[in-house]
Structures are given as structure tokens and as C-alpha cells.
Amino acid sequence: MILSIESSCDDSALSITEIATNKLLFHKKISQEVDHSVYGGVVPELAARLHAKALPMILAQCEPYFKNLKAVAVTSTPGLAVTLVEGVTMAKAIAVALEIPLIGVNHLIGHIYSLFIEKEAVFPLTVLLVSGGHTQVMEVKSLTDVTTVAKSMDDSFGESFDKVAKMMRLGYPGGPLIQNLAKDGDGLKHNFTVPLHQSPLIAFSYSGLKNAVRLAVLEEEKNETPDFKDIAASFEHIATKHLTMKLKKYFKTTKPKTFAIVGGASANLYLRSQIKELLKPYHAELLLSELQYCSDNAAMIGRVAVDMYKNDMFSDMEELDIAPKSKL
Length: 328
Ligand code: KG4
Ligand code: ZN
Hints:
10 helices; alpha/beta
């Protein structure tokens, strides 16, 4: 079995995965969303202190598995420096105490493997990762052969939902809150410009759309009883259209066969439906993670760790360090 730890942002999570079967024997996550909600976003220093409390609490529940552990895995990149270090320090302490090897996991590969929890991994596939920290398209040929073909030049898709929710004083995380508000709104009411629609670049950008939404919110606030549902729906519509337009452009040269959407924002139902439509003419298969594994979790880290273990991809105790920015 492998014990895996995730602490790259605002979720403290641990899992136990059986190496021979990929079976998830234990998974527990303590989310800090409520603690950060008043600030409208994650406060790194607060997140680190909450991890320091939550991780050992969950670890205590894993004690019955200690004697069966063959390795300890941990997210070491990318993420918030002060929160990554909480998980990595704990993983190193466990590795020393139980005399087992250490596996440093890339969180983005973790999101890709959220598709394969309790399953065999299937490659090749094209993956759209949409989370709070990332918006990127990756060509994945294997565990170690991952090429990023498009990424955001500024804010990420999920982050733009968080920022728009903050403008509307809805709380954090913004994704589910905006999705919920948008469902009764008119997505065509506000004609926001689709980012980079005239640019030949296959890349993403959300800062311009965010500012356009800010102006619409300010305008709506002039009303006695501001109602943001049409702005939320129009924002969700354009934010998604931007993704589908750029993907369509990319598919002109590289036809998708198996396509996947992963990351916290892949839970967005409008995005899921639009991508399904986009893939129809290509008869491509769409892979999605179970809703419970879209946002950050340790089950996905454990699933990567099993394949890394089988490929002898261990980390050196002295050399394993945190890296806030991913090489991918
Ligand atoms: O993958 P994740 O848990 O953390 C990162 O690795 O960043 O993603 C969290 C992000 C947040 O920005 C959150 O607002 C967004 O995913 N999110 C959504 C939805 N659910 C979560 N964005 C849009 N629609 C949703 N339904
Ligand atoms: Zn994530």
C-alpha cells in the first residue's frame, strides 16, 4: 500500500491505495473553504496553519495501515510554497520513521490520474485541465510523456470564477456559486467580448473578461436591489466559449480521439455540456473524473503514486524539495 498526501492549496487530504489493485482503501479530505470564504480567496499563511492541524489528525486514522506501507507519496509541485512544505515535511518524517521510500508527485499529473481512480490508466489522450491555478491543454502519451500545447497567459478559468464571485460578494470558491446563480440567468444578456477571439494564438486569457464583468457588476450595483444572475450566466457563457473556440482551432491540426476534462472547474456542468457538443463531429470519447475527485484530493495523488512505484520513480530524501511552479 501507498500513503499519499495532498496539501498544495486549501485541501488537506490523505489516502491509502493498494498497489496491486489500484483500490482506494482510505481517503479523507478536510477542506478549508469556509475558513477562506470571508477573504474571497485562499490566504496562504492561514492555509499552512490549517494544514499543520488537519494533516496529523487524518494521519492518526491511517495508523492501522502503517505496517503494510511500501512508500509514502506527496504533492511536491506546483502549489503554494507554504502549504506544499507542510505535506512534504510530513512525508519525509513518515519515510524516515517507517523506513520506506518517498515519491514526489506533480499535482497536475495527479489531476490527470483523477480519471483513473480504481482503474487502469489509458493513454494517449488530450486533457483540458481547468482548476484554480491552471488552464491548460496537454497531450498525454504516458505517465512521463506529457506536453502542454496551450495555457493561460494570466488568470485561470477557475480563478476567474472565484474573482467574479468575490466582486458579487458571493464567497469562495466562486465556481459552484457562480454556476448556481447562472442557472436562472440569461447568458446572452451581456455581450462580453470572447478573449483572444481575433488572435491566431492557441492560448487562454481571462483578465480582460474579468475586467469587463467588473464594469457590469459596478453598473448593476447602482440599482436598489442588484441582481447578478444575468451577469453570472453571461460570464459563464463567454468564459466557456473562449475555451471551446480555442480548442476548435487546435482540433483543426490535431483531431481528438480521447479527450478529458480534469481539475476543480471540470465539475462545471455548462462547460461539460459545451465540450460534449464540441466533440460530437470528431466522434471522440470524453473522459471525466467522478465529481468527488474533480477538486483537489489525495486519491488522485495515490493513483499516480502507484504507477510511479511500479516504474521505480522514487525521490531522494535530500533532493526532494517543493517547487511552487510546475515544469509542465
Ligand atoms: O482543482 P482545484 O480543487 O484546485 C486547484 O488545483 O486549483 O480547483 C479549484 C477551482 C476553484 O477556482 C473553483 O472555483 C473551481 O475550481 N470550481 C469551479 C466549479 N467548481 C469548482 N469552477 C467553475 N464551475 C464549477 N462548478
Ligand atoms: Zn488542483
